Amino acid sequence: MRVAILIITYNRLELLEICIKKAFAQNDVDVDIVVVNNASSDGTREYLENLRKRHHNLYVITEQENLGGAGGF
């Protein structure tokens, strides 16, 4: 089975790292992860750029301003 996970984030790098790690650790499913970065200023952008180099199934949308959770969706 293939699933997609959508994560909206703003300045929660430590929690984002845990969330993505657990998402990739799912068994019996192929996972595509889409992260909407709502203009984080805590190193999230750099973390996601480095992670994308290793995971072809990670997609990142980087917003120029914080659109909030609803705006991210």
- Side-by-side strand order of the widest sheet: 1-2-3
The largest sheet, given as strand count, sense and whether it forms a barrel, is: 3 strands, parallel
Oligomer: single chain
Helix-residue proportion = 25-40%
In total, the number of strands is 3
| Mean model confidence by pLDDT | 94
**Which spans of ≥5 residues are poorly predicted at pLDDT below 50?**
none
Count, helices? 3
**Cα shape:** globular
- The termini sit apart by 23 Å
Determine Rg (CA atoms, Å).
12 Å
Structural class category: alpha/beta
| Strand-residue proportion | 25-35%
N-to-C order of helices and strands = EHEHEH
Summarize this structure as a short list of keywords or feature phrases.
29% strand; 3-stranded parallel beta sheet; 3 strands; 3 helices; alpha/beta; 73 residues
Compile the SSE list and pairings.
Elements: E1 2-9, H1 13-24, E2 30-37, H2 44-52, E3 58-62, H3 68-72
Gist?
With 73 residues, the chain is an alpha/beta fold.
General description of the model:
It is built from three helices and three strands. The two termini are 23 Å apart. The protein has helices at residues 13-24, 44-52, 68-72; strands at 2-9, 30-37, 58-62. It is globular, with a radius of gyration of 12 Å. With 73 residues, the protein is an alpha/beta fold. Strand 2, helix 2 (44-52) and strand 3 (58-62) form a beta-alpha-beta unit. The longest helix is centred in the first third of the chain and has 12 residues, at 13-24. The chain has a three-stranded parallel sheet with strand order 1-2-3.
